[in-house]
Amino acid sequence: MNKRTVNGFFYGLFMDVDLLQGMNIRAVDPRPALVDGYALQIGARATLVPSEGRKVYGMVIAMTHADLEKLYGAPGLNEYRPEAVLAQLLHGEAVPALCYNLLTPPHPDEVNEEYAFKLRAVLAKLNFPSEYIESVL
Fold first, then answer.
1. Structural domains of the chain in order of their starting residue, each with its CATH number
2. What is the pLDDT of residues 28-58, one digit of tens each?
3. How far apart are CA 127 and CA 106, in angstroms?
4. The whole model's pTM is what?
5. Distance between CA atoms of 78 and 36, rounded to whole angstroms?
6. Is 9 left (phi over 0), alpha (psi -120 to 50) or beta?
7. Is there a contact between 9 and 37 (Cβ–Cβ < 8 Å)?
8. What is the DSSP letter of 13?
9. What confidence tier does 85 reach under pLDDT thresholds 50, 70, 90?
10. Across-strand partners of 83?
């Protein structure tokens, strides 16, 4: 089995390494980061949408391609597609990463308050800025 890892940028509940490990996903070297030029949008789940002047906080986490396929092959996640992003680590350099997003964002009327609540809790656990956490609706 190939153990080679790639960086993924995670901005939703998958930022939580404990959650990933509970799913038997090997998450390596988690690092807080941000990606410029995107905004977080929550529908049934979270996705990123291009948005000039905005930024999204998340975690850069290394994992194998097999683990990424396992995560995004699960029911409800198979419409997410990988895109290349440049993630700015909060304590260092910029690194390339794969970021899984929906090709078609949720309708603006689509909301998931439970998901947003859980995401705010994960962001707080990871010590992201309070103004960003409060902006997650």
1. 5-135 (3.10.490.10)
2. 999 999 999 999 999 988 999 999 999 999 9
3. 27
4. 0.95
5. 25
6. beta
7. no
8. G
9. very high
10. 99
